[in-house]
Specification:
Helix content: 55-70%
Number of strands: 0
CATH topology: Four Helix Bundle (Hemerythrin (Met), subunit A)
Largest sheet: none
Number of domains: 1
Strand content: under 5%
């Protein structure tokens, strides 16, 4: 598990952010990182997501190092069991696969944040028929799965912070999509659950 987590997160970052960002930029000429840091709420969400991502990196790195470095994170011994860790690993792999499928189905509409300057298509096909927010759902699952793989105070705090930020972000995105797509989005919202 100490090798799996850093390898998994490196692959996930490359697949979900670097590769997808390059694809979207090449095909559209638009950068997919779309937080408006001048807007106080967008700026807050962007900073909170960055803190959450940095906490994930620290948690995974110290878990991989092990020993006294990991002890500093206050491991939760009651959950430190191979069965729990492998359940978490399975959930991480499933979440990554789900997110890759969702991003592929989103195509050129994929953004991190809300792109008010470049309107995007309303995607309702594929996994978006099951969840209005499949990528954010995968992120939520990943945060809990990380906690199961490396149960400690930092991974628990990261899961709570990350989920809180995701809950704020999803509501901002829904408001934006309703303003952008009107009745089409309202019909979609009424037919498909926010998560599952």
């Amino acid at each position: 598990m100490r090798v799996f987590l850093p390898v998994y997160f490196a692959v996930a970052m490359l697949a979900l952010f670097v590769y997808r960002a390059v694809v979207v930029r090449r095909r559209t000429g638009v950068g997919p990182l779309a937080f408006d840091r001048r807007d106080p709420l967008d700026g807050y969400v962007a900073r909170a997501m960055l803190v959450s991502e940095l906490a994930v990196v620290v948690s995974v790195a110290l878990f991989a190092i092990g020993g006294e470095a990991y002890v500093a994170l206050q491991p939760i011994d009651a959950l430190d069991h191979p069965v729990v860790q492998w359940l978490g690993a399975g959930a991480l792999v499933a979440a990554l696969a789900w997110a890759v499928v969702a991003q592929t189905q989103m195509g050129d509409s994929w953004r991190v944040g809300i792109d008010r300057a470049n309107p995007t298509e309303l995607v309702t096909r594929g996994v978006f028929r099951l969840s209005r927010n499949p990528i954010l759902l995968a992120m939520r699952v990943s945060l809990v799965a990380l906690f199961l793989c490396a149960p400690n105070a930092l991974s628990l705090a990261t899961a709570v912070l990350g989920d809180t930020v995701i809950q704020v972000q999803v509501r901002l995105e829904e408001k934006h999509l309703e303003a952008l797509h009107g009745d089409a989005y309202r019909r979609y919202r009424d037919a498909v659950r926010r998560w599952l």
